[in-house]
Amino acid sequence: MVARRKVAVVGVALSDCGRVDDATPYALHAQAARRALADAGLDRSLVDGFASAGLGTLAPVEVAEYLGLRPTWVDSTSVGGSTWEVMAAHAADAIAAGHARVVLLAYGSTARADVRAGRRTGTLSFGTRGPLQFEAPYGHTLIAKYAMAARRHMIEYGTTIEQLAEVAVQARANAALNPEAMFRTPVTPDEIASGPMIADPFTKLHCCVRSDGGAAVLLAAEEYVRDCRTEPVWVLGSGEHVSHSAMSEWPDFTVSPAAVSGRLAFERAGVRPSDIDFAEIYDAFTYMTLVTLEDLGFCAKGEGGAFVEKGRLRVEGGELPVNTDGGGLSAQHPGMRGLFLLVEAVRQLRGECGDRQVRRGDGSLPRLTVASGTGGWFCSSGTVVLGAG
């Protein structure tokens, strides 16, 4: 049996993000990809694997062509916001097995600009094909499905709307330290409570921002690490899971698929939740952060509300800094945001985050992190454990 190679993230980058009115999604893919390659210091000719989703009729074939790539390994897995953690897991497995040497993950979206220009409307649902046809007559919007799950958690465990609001308050506090975040002005629980109702119990600031932007991540086999200009961040373990499509098939609204993907990732990495220095968690809505913290094992089921109350998620003074760039609630959210979690996780482990840099109790840089993406309406999850070089 051939020994499996170690795999590292060697380059990460964001395209221009936030309000980008003069670029196409293809251009944002390319901008992020160029920056990630420059970050790694690797030549484009070494890239023999490519993964992307969400753009084009034949994604990622069209995007690869636009980027001038002719990959011999390709992945177009599309499972919503968790796509990128799942793709990173697939890429790491392919590299470890010798099927690729360097894999590029790339994403770009002009979700905000398209709405403003009238090229699309807000994403209220995913359509009425397949199993979704049985829910569509009842008016389930995408946001309403998350709101229903949050309300179930409140009923089951006494979680309060004030506790959910704390997730948004602390995300904004972290964003205030990030000069690239879309919204940096601090918010209070009262401001969140008094905002316009979107889907009970969510007011506006319980929901992610809509932005433009792209991201790219470059993974490489261990023998290429010495040629890179950056310190490697090693992929230690990963897990993925899908739980349901129709809400009627979801056994428990208070348990996300991260309960499975997280357990697998930690087991395969050989670490425990208590070993993690900070976490990057998909946060299209405040409830997503809270329930994912429970399901990853950072607190017991039903104790997420109490866990987030004490400022634990803050970069400054928090016991477990979460979404250190401000997350989808404040930094940026152009659609399938999972790749942005990986970019921020790597930058933190490399000590490149300036005022928002996470430090351990002794002042040293963090050593371990977890990035967990969620797709659909808690339909899928991908979790990746990363370690500093």
UniProtKB/TrEMBL annotation:
Domain Thiolase C-terminal residues, every copy: 239-387
UniProt superkingdom: Bacteria
InterPro entries attached to this UniProt entry: Thiolase, Thiolase-like, Thiolase_C_2
CDD domains (alphabetical): SCP-x_thiolase
Coiled-coil intervals: none
A Pfam family recorded for this sequence: Thiolase_C_1
Full protein name: Acetyl-CoA acetyltransferase
